[in-house]
Amino acid sequence: MSAPERGGTCVFLGSVRNGPEEQGVTAIEYSAYEEMVEAEFGRLLADARGRWPDARIAVRHRLGRIPVGEASIAIVAAAPHRAEAFEACRFVIEEVKRRIPVWKKELRVDGTETWVDPSGHPTPHPLTHD
Amino acid sequence: MTTTATATIRVRLFARYAELVGRAEAAVSVSLPATVDDVVRRLRDEFPGARELPERPLAAVNLRQVKLDARVKDGDEVALLPPIAGG
Question: What is the value of ipTM here, to two decimals?
Fold first, then answer.
């Protein structure tokens, strides 16, 4: 990623959280439409290259069961200057949240499991969510 | 005599939608011309659990997000995607 002409490197790690909102989350089970994840990451990174042609960007999303505190996604963006590095890194994580077909189920200490909806709040009941 | 062309569509379901329908994939036949919306309707007819799916789910055809009025053809893969929640 780094090179003499790229003076700014921004790293983003997204980790499995158990804060006050999560209520006893011990892990998240990630699942995906894996073939589309590959295709969509290709399109997303092509979009990013179009915006920041001098940047180098790498992204990796883990799947399966990931315990609290471990990273589920890592993004690295290296660019000639820090502004582009930060912007490109931010762009990639926001686009991942919008376009990459990955889903998460929160696993709790009491044995319950909840699908997470995109607003970040758990679905109240499996059959009532639209 | 008229013949109606039909298409066989591979439907893929993920995460909560797979749980609702009780399967991760299905093959459905639709009369052409047909849209993704027709495929979803056919799925509802064939699988009781599919009636629990939202009226207008996010959909992809052949690995690309599309609107529900997108046309489908024989051999296409239609995926119904729950609200995306990665990262």
Answer: 0.91
The stretches in chain B having pLDDT less than 70 are: 1-3
Q: Would you call A47 an interface residue with chain B, using a CB distance cutoff of 8 Å? A: no
CA distance A22 to chain B (A): 15
Domains of chain B: 7-74 (3.10.20.30)
Q: Which residues contact A54 (CB under 8 A, 6 or more apart)?
A: A5, A6, A79, A80, A84
- For chain A, domain boundaries: 8-115
What is the dotted CATH code of the domain comprising A8-115?
A: 3.90.1170.40
Cα A10 to chain centroid, rounded: 15
Q: What is the pLDDT of residues A4-15, one digit of tens each?
A: 999 999 999 999
- Chain A segment 52-81 residues within 8 A of B by beta carbon are 61, 72-73
Q: Which tokens hold the place of A88?
A: 């490109």
